[in-house]
Amino acid sequence: MIRIKAGVPRRPRPRPRARRPLRRALALGLPSMWGAIAVTYKLTCPLAQQNDMGARIVTSAVFFAVGTGLIVQVRRSLLRELRQIRQIAGAAQNALLRPLPPRLDGLNIAAAQLSAERGAVVGGDLYEVIATEHGVRVVMGDVRGHGIAAIGTVAAVLGSFREAAHDEPHLEGVLRRLDRALARHLGERARAEHPASGAPDPDSPVAEEFVTVLLLEIGRDGEVRGLNCGHPWPYRLSGTGAEPLSRADPLPPLGPFPLPAAMPFVRCGQLLPGEALFLYTDGAEDARDARGGFFPLADVLAEATAQRPLPAPQSVLGSVFTALLRHTGGTPTDDVALLVLRNDRRPTPTPPGARGSDISGSAAGARPATTHPHPTNYPQHNGV
Questions:
Q1: CB 3.0–4.6 Å: which of 50, 146, 150, 259 could bond 55 by disulfide?
Q2: Which range is most confident: 67-71, 173-177, 208-212?
Q3: What is the pTM of this model?
């Protein structure tokens, strides 16, 4: 199920409460009625007391009908409960991944997600865009696993980012806040699973939990700075095609390893007016067709943006998702989240050397870029 996160969502209509007692009465009454029919037939019907072949056939048919009715009723009850659980999970997901505004500080924004679970709207992907006094700050992440089990981790990371994005003057501080929030969440999960010992089991899934995180900061002049923990670098979309925003080596994902003492951010050059950033989770590049071929994301982006000016972000998302579903036969095996930010600000004079992409720097020093793109897709574990 694809969910576009842009604009103001419509408020769902509340269901009438009067129907709930009726449904509960039917859920309890119908099985009792079927059982009463079977008992009444066996005790009062003269045909049920006979032992000839015809009577046995009729009795078997009656009990078969009663059994079928019970099975159908139980199945309907289970499906109704499953729908309610999915609605609750979807409401929780909508509360976490809030619909993004279509425009924010001069940026045109569109986001979408595709859950790998059929009929579900929950997943392990996360994203958020916030305008702060330090610039527009963006997070894109991917939690190990997908489905309802990943919601708690998504909530911990997103909740921390929404506060740290405003409080921390540097991206390094934001990332450290996310790391501490994730560590607290995993510690609470471990204690909940092993309340007696108070220590996590090394073989527990919590011990293997990790989150890939990409942090970006877009200044008023379009300067883009980033910190990457095991996540794919986004693409820069322009009239000349799609190219990686950076080729710098990423840090390890959050969770398994502590953050290094020095984390110099990566200078990714300027996002000029009319250009866009395309952020995604690795479920897009790792999607395979029936023959095992990977999804050609870069080629699809180049084709979708081969016109001037660039199409609207919603149009880019539609083109990519259409190609992705066609490539996978409509059944992707991993969650996919996409986020497009187009710079619609008025053009400003470009300073010399503004396109110096992959030059990283901070008070701690600079980190050189690699010659070739570093693969940021880590070995898959439960859908990541």
A1: 50
A2: 173-177
A3: 0.70
